[in-house]
TrEMBL record:
Pfam family, any one: Glycos_transf_1
Keyword list, A-Z: Transferase
Species annotation: Marinobacter panjinensis
Protein name from the UniProt record: Glycosyltransferase family 4 protein
Lineage: Bacteria, Pseudomonadati, Pseudomonadota, Gammaproteobacteria, Pseudomonadales
Domain Glycosyl transferase family: residue ranges: 153-301
InterPro entries xrefs: Glyco_trans_1
Length: 335
């Protein structure tokens, strides 16, 4: 496309950074450290200003946030610019009906943006069908295999076998089972856990935290890439179906053996290249020891999968590129 392109997000995410770079878009991470209501008002004002600036071009927004997607959709109705929403797995799949007004508000934001956006990008066919059943238009594009920082700082990790558990301490991540699994591993194994453990109420000095567990907290991008490059294996777990865990792409990029959850979606995506585990401590510990005993096999498998997923991504990207180049795709948006 020859139009100016902006990519706006309220949550800084490696997927958005990589895709914005590939698209040639100006990337804007809109943030605020104020209290909840003030924070959203300030981010909305900044976003309105950015979208107005790019109203004659192409606007891409990341969802989450649903509020960001709805705001962009509302402005699209006014200024008639083409709008693409990169939608993560936040459809409330499998969750019951809520009487919480806040939940209903974000659901309305979600439904509105799906119908108004010219295109919604999702990570798998199931979510594509979800979008289309709700009246939207969707295309599948999984994460691009990221480029890890080659100048990442050197690290001397504490264990003979170091397992990097990529975690955000969200409800779908069985982090308590991982911590329990560490107790079942040999003493020279070390489980390194990323993410803000304070939001889960964890205390590194607690007796609950085994001696071979390290709660890293939030680490910088440079430090994170270093942990990825120096660990012996990576672990990324979820109890949610239809989620493609981002850490798996980073494992492929670094050629690290991957342990992930035994969901249908993850098994279909990673095939034979990963070791799968249930969300219980015994299964997690067994998976870690199996990978540690066969590291070269898993490194070879993940390297082969990286090549295949790179080819698949290029094919998916070409389909998106065709969509972007087709003026008719943006029905009712061309000035």
């Amino acid at each position: 496309m020859t139009k100016d392109i902006c990519w706006i997000t309220w949550e800084d995410h490696r997927r958005s950074i990589e895709l914005a770079k590939e698209l040639g878009a100006d990337y804007y991470f809109v943030k605020s450290n104020e209290a909840f209501i003030v924070r959203h008002i300030l981010k909305a004002v900044k976003t309105i200003s950015l979208i107005y600036r790019y109203r004659n071009g192409l606007v891409v927004v990341q969802n989450p946030s649903r509020i960001l997607a709805a705001l962009a959709a509302l402005m699209k109705l006014i200024f008639r610019f083409p709008l693409i929403v990169d939608r993560h797995t936040n459809f409330r799949l499998g969750k019951g009906i809520s009487l919480n007004p806040a939940i209903w508000f974000v659901i309305l934001c979600s439904e509105f943006s799906l119908k108004v956006a010219d295109l919604t990008i999702v990570t798998n066919e199931f979510l594509k069908n979800v979008v289309e059943k709700k009246g939207g238009r969707a295309i599948v594009l999984h994460d691009k295999i990221p480029e890890l920082k080659q100048d990442a700082q050197s690290l001397e990790l504490p264990g003979k076998v170091n397992i990097l558990f990529v975690c955000t301490f969200s409800p779908d991540e069985p982090y308590l089972e991982v911590i329990k699994a560490a107790e079942q591993l040999p003493n020279d194994y070390c489980v390194l856990i990323t993410g803000n453990y304070e939001k889960a109420g964890l205390d590194p000095s607690s007796d609950f935290i085994a001696n071979n567990v390290r709660l890293l907290g939030f680490v910088s991008s440079n430090a994170y890439d270093a942990y990825v490059q120096y660990c012996d294996m990576m672990m990324v777990l979820t109890t949610s179906e239809w989620v493609l865990v981002c850490g798996g792409y980073e494992a492929m990029a670094a050629g690290k053996p991957l342990i992930t959850s035994d969901t249908m979606t993850l098994k279909a995506f990673y095939g034979q290249s990963a070791e799968y585990t249930s969300a219980n401590s015994k299964s997690i510990a067994q998976a870690a020891m199996k990978v540690a005993n066969n590291p070269d096999i898993y490194k070879h498998l993940i390297a082969q999968e990286c090549l295949e997923k790179t080819k698949l991504w290029r094919k998916q990207w070409s389909e998106l590129d065709t969509f972007l180049e087709n003026a008719e795709a943006f029905s009712s948006t061309t000035r």
